[in-house]
Amino acid sequence: MHASKVRLAARNNALWCDAVCHAHGVPGEFLATVWLNRSVPPPFHPNLIVVSDSGVQDITLEHIRDLMSLPLAANWSVKDSFFNLELGPLGFDPLFQATWIWRETGVGTVGGLSTDVRWSRVTASEDLANWEASWAGHSRTSQARSAPAQFPSSLLTDPEHVFIAGFEGREIVAGGIANRTGNVVGLSNVFVNSGDTIAAWTGLVAAIERAFPDSPLVGYERGAALDAALAGGFMAIGPLRVWARRGRPGA
Question: In 3-state terms, what secondary structure has residue 239?
């Protein structure tokens, strides 16, 4: 029923992953059924995302086998966007399961906006570093400042990528990333460090809709974050699963 929406969400997610990989100097490539990366992507990013449910699973499995022959990091992963792959025989274990979500424009919510949180777009490198520290759940210690950025500031130069921060006073307490691809806007890396989660999702969505009006929002979540998204006007459109390659001996 929602297959076309899942395809849009999966491709949007793959394009965002590719943008982050490109910012790190390790871009991936799009093939007919998958996006894949033959290098070592940044943390939390897979080496392959399925972007088509055309039924040619054998081709997808061949791409996975090709990646298995490369010197990738241990425990690299595959995003099974349509929840229809069985990768156990190839040496993978399920890492987590999640749900694709979709929000039409103009949909109401059950949560009100928090008057304690001010939402704004991140536009400067220093602000992005502070945003990332809050996203990672730590303060900007000297050790954290010296670590490579998960989200390089070059991502700010693309008008289709928007980092949103929610402030209480001068402290970033919540946020997320929006990336527009075609007629949809992807929402990812949502974090809420304090306050009412549903109200934070409501405020974040409102901020993204100001940046990208009249576009459906897509993404995926699980657990409490999924509950908050559904309360914030999203609907579930299908399951996905991430598989992790079992670490090789000595890796």
Answer: strand
Q: Where are the beta strands (DSSP E) in 104-196?
A: 118-121, 161-168, 171-181, 184-192
Radius of gyration of the chain (CA): 18
Q: Same domain for 131 and 210?
A: yes
Same domain, 123 and 229: yes
Q: Do 92 and 130 belong to one domain?
A: no
* Torsion sign (Cα): 86, 92, 98, 99: negative
How far is the C-alpha of 157 from the C-alpha of 22, rounded, in Å? 13
Helix, strand, or coil here: 250?
Answer: coil
Are 98 and 20 found together in one domain? yes
Q: Is-above-0.90 flag for pTM?
A: yes
* Residue 155 belongs to domain spanning: 118-215+223-234
Q: Directed axis angle between helix 197-211 and helix 223-231, to 10°?
A: 60
Runs of H (alpha helix) within 24-118: 57-68
What is the Cα–Cα distance from 239 to 82, expressed in whole angstroms? 7
- For tokens 């007629």, name the residue: 183
- Same domain? For 98 and 150 the reply is no
Same domain, 79 and 35: yes
Percent of the chain with pLDDT over 70: 90
The tokens describing 132, both together, are: 């990332």
pLDDT digits (tens, 9 = 90+) for 166-192: 999 999 999 999 999 999 999 999 999
Number of separate domains in the chain: 2
CATH number at residue 210: 3.40.630.30
Helix (H) / strand (E) element for 217: namely strand 217-221
In-domain check, residue 112: no
pLDDT digits (tens, 9 = 90+) for 106-131: 876 555 556 689 999 999 999 999 99
